[in-house]
Amino acid sequence: MAKPRVAIFDFTGCEGCELNQLNFEDQLLDILAHVDIVEWREAMDGHADEYDIAFVEGSLSTPDCIKRIHEVRRKAKVLVALGACAVQGGINGVKNTHPIEEVREEVYGEDKYLFPTLPALAVSSVVKVDYNVRGCPMTQLEFLKVFTALVLGKEPIEPEHSVCVECKLKENECVYARGMICLGPVTRAGCDAHCPTVGQYCTGCRGLVPEPNLKAMEEILVEHGLNVDEAWKRLQLFNANEIEGVRS
Amino acid sequence: MVQFFLESERVTELVTHLKGQKPVFAPHRKGRKSFAFERVEDAADVVLDYPRVMHSIRKFFLPPRETLMTFDLAENDFSTADVQPSDAIFFGVHSYDLGAVHRLDYNLGKGHPEKNYITRRQGAVFVGVSFEPDAYHFCGSVGIDPMDTSGFDIFLTKLLDGYIVEALTEVGEQLLNGLDLPAHEAGKPARGNFQQHIYLPQAKLNEVMAKSYDNPVWAETAEKCVGCGTCNLVCPTCYCFNVEDTVNIQATGGTRDRHWDGCMLREFTGVAGGEVFREHLADRQRHRVFRKFKYISDETGQPWCVGCGRCTAYCTAGISIVNIVNRLVGDYEKVAVTPI
Ligand code: SF4
Ligand code: SF4
Ligand code: SF4
Ligand code: SF4
Description:
- The complex is a heterodimer.
- Chain A folds into two domains: 5-152, Rossmann fold (3-Layer(aba) Sandwich), CATH 3.40.50.700; 163-247, no CATH class.
- In chain A, strand 3 (51-57), helix 2 and strand 4 (76-82) form a beta-alpha-beta unit.
- Helix content of chain A is 35%, strand content 11%.
- Chain A is globular, with a radius of gyration of 19 Å.
- Chain A contains nine helices and five strands; from the N terminus they run E-H-E-E-H-E-H-H-E-H-H-H-H-H.
- Chain A has helices at 25-34, 63-75, 83-88, 100-108, 140-151, 163-169, 194-197, 214-223, 228-243; strands spanning 5-10, 36-40, 51-57, 76-82, 131-133.
- Chain B is of the alpha/beta class.
- Chain B folds into two domains: 3-176, no CATH class; 202-337, no CATH class.
- In chain B, the strands form two sheets. In chain B, strands 1-9-8-7-6-2-3 form a seven-stranded mixed sheet. A four-stranded antiparallel sheet of chain B has the order 5-4-11-10, with no helix packed on it.
- In chain B, helix 7 (217-224) crosses helix 9 (281-293).
- The radius of gyration of chain B is 22 Å and the shape is globular.
- Residues 234-237, 292, 305-311, 321 of chain B line the site of one iron/sulfur cluster (SF4).
């Protein structure tokens, strides 16, 4: 059986999710044993005309990004979004909460006309995404889970439930009991409740659960005497695109 | 049954005495306001006066996560996990939590018996302690008294300055051997009052629930619910789980693991082919409550909720199972007395 051909692309992100940043030294040979990497700007020259799996990092925020992602999608059999920016627009989405002209002026000043910009979009809002590796940054463990499933020809399973589930499995004391705002109830699990486990609140970096009950979430904040506006600002940090229109 | 008296200061001595015979698991402080059952290293860390632990002792027999087997793809072989009898003392257990263990024994022992659970249940010794009902307990309404000693090997009943100690089984008696305790003569104290009640007489249980399928309370509750599944995960009579296989990166083998799951979670109601049986939170909430008061109860005649109050106490949205059930009873009574 021929090895799957893999291509890796980066768009707008902080590079925290880039595969070469994840300390894969121990697994790299194992990964390479399963696949042929045919395109990867950071590590090699050249372009490929076709690939079985495309891994995409970063959000889409310029007209050029949109052009490139369509090309990636055309050539890829399977497209996987890596990290919060690619999956839901991530932190870059904060830009979308301000008028785009203001953002251009602020960032590029006089040169703003040289740099066309768009709201920061999730890859899935432009082309079809087959699988996600969530998180900011995504973790090695979750990447390997999805990667292994794909090379074995299995469907990667993405949790739909909230961070509270993993938090409860660990018998953590809920941070609401300590007067903190936690976005765990509407945030997708998969991180093993990383933040609440170390006594921190969840900021929703993995995106929202499908069909989040944000009205009920708001009630929870009110009932606990917490600041709803502050909570919504936190939710915007990683999920500006996901909550757009739900509450301004 | 002979009753002894144990001064509060001597609890540590009792724990140390037991610990010398078998491993002891008991409530410890966890976080700022919580308590959890943990293995006793230092007897002084044991807390007997606690309202509730997030996870009942169920977690020792049916752990939140466990590996069921490891498999080898190259050899096409597998080996199941080495599960051992617990053979330990569970110290400071509340009566409702032992009631929950007995319910799990029923569910996991019948049909296709749950081997791992049954194995771990072996050699478990239970030392109970009475408790003051708090703002969430309502076990009195489902027939479980805070001073109910049934099923325990040893029971401690709280007094102002100590505990009445009773050995209720031979195992319990033997464990107390060698401990010099004065006899207790004065009888038992009155038990504390419950602040929470469900008004559902057992004789009417099946009937009320049979009339509750279309009650509007399900949809009303769903509006406030975030579907986080906490109410399932903390319930001592819940036993549902999901099983997942993980293959290592070399693709030479892996593990089959399971973890707790719950009927409030949408994925749980999904089946192969993508069909989801209970799409809406209202359907799932009804299913959860029916699992505690109807489905198994129709079979056994008993509520499967032990009134621990956890699902309400830990629900961030403040959804109360007591309010839900009382609403069902109230609506049933209204309809029952309405002339046709
Ligand atoms: S700390 Fe956050 S994630 Fe954990 S149970 Fe509480 S709300 Fe849920
Ligand atoms: S707990 Fe929340 S913020 Fe922290 S890693 Fe998990 S999803 Fe991200
Ligand atoms: S704990 Fe509360 S919010 Fe969470 S699923 Fe249960 S009822 Fe809904
Ligand atoms: S349904 Fe709620 S009150 Fe009843 S046993 Fe379960 S967690 Fe306790």
